[in-house]
């Protein structure tokens, strides 16, 4: 039950990232790469502060570090760019659909035995995603969808890399710290770093709280979930993001979205009912 509660809190943080990013970038308060740069710097500083309070900086080892940093960079850049065109809920649906495919692939390749009921639940949840963006459904800009799909692949790789983290806080802090020069460099070269005060503060909130603290929490609960169950759990985020977008930003969501959301949540319930994954 404790793992469930912490996982739910992490999912809420992920959904908040979608809303904050959409608020700042969609309103033109900051350019997308500038948002990503401020976000990763704020997250790195918050995590470094937490490490200092805990007793000092600890190197968590090289295992999963390259994959973790690379996945985080791809996710941060793609995520911010996509929200130039996508609403919070639609963007989160595409993001975590790509996450699910990536993490299920990683589960199979790493030798995890995925029970049939979990495959059924994942398939049902993914069908809800397909139904939403199929012809005749929501209007989804192609460029934004591609950028968000890339972000989802990056996040899936980042999550897979975190399964073996023995020190979740240290691993997250180093991932953020090592990603800073890459993301900031990309923003300076291609983004121009346009920003108003409101956009900067939203990026700081996203980086320090819902990203830095949220991702450290996510790395903490990942070992108890396994790759497949973690992938399915994240499909609750689009529903939360859509609710947040509707309440905070006033984004409209149609009936088709809520039908798809009901299908997704049903799939999550089916897949999560199984006990933990075992290894071959």
From TrEMBL:
Domain of life (superkingdom): Bacteria
In the bilayer, the protein is annotated as: Multi-pass membrane protein
UniProt keyword annotation of Membrane present: yes
InterPro entries xref list: Diverse_Substrate_Transporter, EamA_dom, EmrE-like
**Does the keyword section mention Transmembrane?**
yes
| A single cellular component GO annotation | plasma membrane
Coiled-coil regions listed: none
One Pfam family per UniProt: EamA
What lineage, starting at the top, does this entry show?
A: Bacteria, Pseudomonadati, Pseudomonadota, Alphaproteobacteria, Rhodobacterales
* Name of this protein: DMT family transporter
User: Sorted alphabetically, which keywords does the UniProt record give?
Assistant: Cell membrane, Membrane, Transmembrane, Transmembrane helix
Location(s) in or outside the cell: Cell membrane
Domain EamA, chain residue ranges per copy: 144-272
List where the protein spans the membrane.
Answer: 36-59, 66-86, 92-111, 118-136, 142-161, 173-193, 199-218, 230-249, 255-273
């Amino acid at each position: 039950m404790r793992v469930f509660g912490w996982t739910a809190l992490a999912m809420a943080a992920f959904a908040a990232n979608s809303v904050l990013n959409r608020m700042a970038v969609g309103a033109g308060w900051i350019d997308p790469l500038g948002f990503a740069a401020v976000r990763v710097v704020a997250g790195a500083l918050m995590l470094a502060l937490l490490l200092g309070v805990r007793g000092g900086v600890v190197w968590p080892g090289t295992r999963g570090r390259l994959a973790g940093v690379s996945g985080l960079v791809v996710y941060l850049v793609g995520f911010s760019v996509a929200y130039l065109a996508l609403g919070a809920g639609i963007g989160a649906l595409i993001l975590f659909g790509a996450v699910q495919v990536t993490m299920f692939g990683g589960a199979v390749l790493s030798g995890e035995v995925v029970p049939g009921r979990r495959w059924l639940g994942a398939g049902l949840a993914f069908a809800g995603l397909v139904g939403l963006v199929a012809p005749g459904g929501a209007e989804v800009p192609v460029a934004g969808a591609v950028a968000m799909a890339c972000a989802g692949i990056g996040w899936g790789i980042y999550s897979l890399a975190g399964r073996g983290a023995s020190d979740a806080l240290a691993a997250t802090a180093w991932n953020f710290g090592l990603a800073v020069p890459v993301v900031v460099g990309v923003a300076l070269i291609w983004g121009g770093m346009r920003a108003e005060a409101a956009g900067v503060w939203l990026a700081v909130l996203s980086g320090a709280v819902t990203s830095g603290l949220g991702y450290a929490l996510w790395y903490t609960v990942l070992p108890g979930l396994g790759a497949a169950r973690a992938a399915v759990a994240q499909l609750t985020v689009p529903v939360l993001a859509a609710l947040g977008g509707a309440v905070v930003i006033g984004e409209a969501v149609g009936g088709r979205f809520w039908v798809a959301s009901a299908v997704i949540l049903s799939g999550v319930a089916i897949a999560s009912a199984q006990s933990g994954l075992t290894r071959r």
